[in-house]
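Hypothesis: this fold can be encoded by more than one sequence.
Test: take the structure tokens below, design a sequence, compare later.
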């Protein structure tokens, strides 16, 4: 066997092993439950919530009442490594007049079950339908896909998406351009298609230096939604929350 043939066979074997590893590990890459930090201390008025889903999962969440019950509830969907209670506390600090509700994604302790894109999107509808009031949905990172799906299925006061994307499968494909990601990816969230069916006002807050969700994916979503209000910040995916312009931009969106 010639050296060229051996080299080609080795390359094919390594490529196949890489594809197999991607297929095997994609669940833990999309839903890195081990990276979620411990919950913060919550205000004394915070309430624990629990919902049982039709397929037997138990979803645990938190509700922090606001000072003005006439304002829409803020229903938050965090990033895939962000503790739900930390997001609830953050949103309460951003808009203390509004009641905040955030649930741990299924499979993220103390919620039970196994996370998947379809499960998270279905759970969002179940959570929304227990609230019995007008709702503003806020989705951060992967949570923007969940919020977008909810907006397609339910009437919302408004939708605010931070570091959003048009398609989660396309984000994965752009990150690994030499692998057949679109054939293997099992957790699509087609945010652009979902929001095309949405009738609520949409605000997009885009990090122009986003190293996790490329700005071109956020820009593609903005292009697909010409009616959306778009706010660009000179920030990365994670340091956007430390930018002095971020919280004022979020408050403007909520007003």
């Amino acid at each position: 066997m010639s050296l060229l043939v051996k080299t080609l066979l080795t390359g094919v074997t390594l490529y196949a092993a890489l594809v197999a590893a991607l297929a095997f590990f994609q669940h833990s890459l999309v839903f890195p439950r081990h990276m979620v930090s411990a919950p913060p201390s919550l205000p004394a008025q915070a309430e624990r919530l629990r919902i049982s889903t039709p397929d037997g999962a138990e979803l645990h969440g938190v509700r922090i009442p606001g000072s003005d019950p006439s304002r829409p509830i803020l229903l938050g969907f965090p990033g895939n490594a962000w503790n739900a209670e930390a997001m609830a506390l953050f949103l309460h600090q951003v808009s203390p007049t509004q009641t905040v509700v955030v649930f741990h994604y299924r499979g993220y302790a103390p919620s039970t079950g196994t996370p998947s894109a379809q499960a998270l999107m279905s759970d969002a509808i179940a959570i929304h339908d227990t609230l019995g009031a007008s709702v503003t949905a806020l989705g951060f990172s992967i949570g923007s896909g969940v919020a977008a799906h909810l907006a397609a299925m339910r009437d919302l006061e408004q939708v605010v998406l931070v570091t959003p994307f048009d398609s989660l499968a396309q984000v994965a494909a752009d990150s690994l351009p030499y692998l057949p990601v679109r054939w293997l990816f099992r957790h699509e969230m087609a945010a652009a298609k979902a929001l095309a069916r949405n009738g609520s006002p949409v605000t997009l807050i885009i990090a122009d230096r986003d190293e996790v969700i490329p700005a071109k994916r956020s820009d593609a979503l903005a292009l697909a939604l010409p009616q959306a209000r778009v706010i660009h910040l000179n920030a990365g995916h994670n340091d956007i929350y430390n930018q002095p312009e971020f919280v004022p931009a979020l408050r403007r969106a909520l007003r």
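The chain has two domains: 1-30, 45-254. The first strand starts at residue 47 and ends at 52.
Hypothesis status: open.
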